[in-house]
Description:
2 domains; binds S-adenosylmethionine
Amino acid sequence: xxxxxxxxxxxxxxxxxxxxxxxxxxxxxxxxxxxxxxxxxxxxxxxxxxxxxxxxxxxxxxxxxxxxxxxxxxxxxxxxxxxxxxxxxxxxxxxxxxxxxxxxxxxxxxxxxxxxxxxxxxxxxxxxxxxxxxxxxxxxxxxxxxxxxxxxxxxxxxxxxxxxxxxxxxxxxxxxxxxxxxxxxxxxxxxxxxxxxxxxxxxxxxxxxxxxxxxxxxxxxxxxxxxxxxxxxxxxxxxxxxxxxxxxxxxxxxxxxxxxxxxxxxxxxxxxxxxxxxxxxxxxxxxxxxxxxxxxxxxxxxxxxxxxxxxxxxxxxxxxxxxxxxxxxxxxxxxxxxxxxxxxxxxxxxxxxxxxxxxxxxxxxxxxxxxxxxxxxxxxxxx
Length: 383
Ligand SMILES: C[S@@+](CC[C@H](N)C(=O)[O-])C[C@H]1O[C@@H](n2cnc3c(N)ncnc32)[C@H](O)[C@@H]1O
């Protein structure tokens, strides 16, 4: 836990989930810049405030006295917000959470937006808030300078109105956008991805991908290799398998697993609300008669121990802007708990990532099922 000292007060903040030896803070220089700017310019905080993409709730906690709503695509950000409010003696209701597919219920007076990593997500979010802003709305965005490009500013100009930036302070920059009467471009999201011609299926699936979904414009080459192998190999019996698509993204892995095992019970899990919703749309479109479960959570948190026969996983290699294998390792560890005895975790990953050693350490076994120049498919069985 570290202390954020800003004009609004001093706040004890932690990242979520807590990781031992984590030296990273729960906020960045852009959060400080936004909070200092609000105080320096004496910006009124009396109306309806919406905060977007607040990584762990730093802005929402510092402004909790003004009842902001916070909108994010991340289950981890939602948990971070709750944890940080409680940790500072603030009620949870002080930071009303809206997931990225919800909309505000009233016109907005102040919008504070942390620029997301994905340009598509920013585009979608500007379209989403646009009907709720008016000429009196103040829109202040903030980011580390590496995330502010000419294209970022053009997006604000096209969807909101005239836009300018501040000087950089501690490598962070603010963006100010005035709401103008514009001829708005169409919101292109969700995108459609056609799976015609893929070798891993003869069916013609059309996937719907929300703006923040992994590999939304084309099939990921790792997932493609994984699905080819899953179709060829003996993965399990064709009985009532209980299958988890862990880190499901648009659900393509679970959809193909359902095609392969028509009697299976599928559970799609991801920490992104947009991913879980895309998986739901894609599964229901592919199998209108079938039911499945769809859960936004951190790795496998909340899933019953000893309940799954098969877990399929193409692990992420970053959480927000932090790159590493820590989420993959957490996914493997929790998979061991959630698998039944005899159940298996199948993983696809880049060859160089060393998942083989990690799985062997956790499960006591790991088989190399297939490999090509770039990827390996690994299998670990719970004994
Ligand atoms: C490499 S993508 C794989 C997506 C999909 N399975 C595919 O193969 O196209 C990894 C997915 O893990 C999700 N993810 C990242 N961190 C997570 C976490 N802590 N818990 C659950 N899912 C997470 C990401 O949102 C992303 O959808």
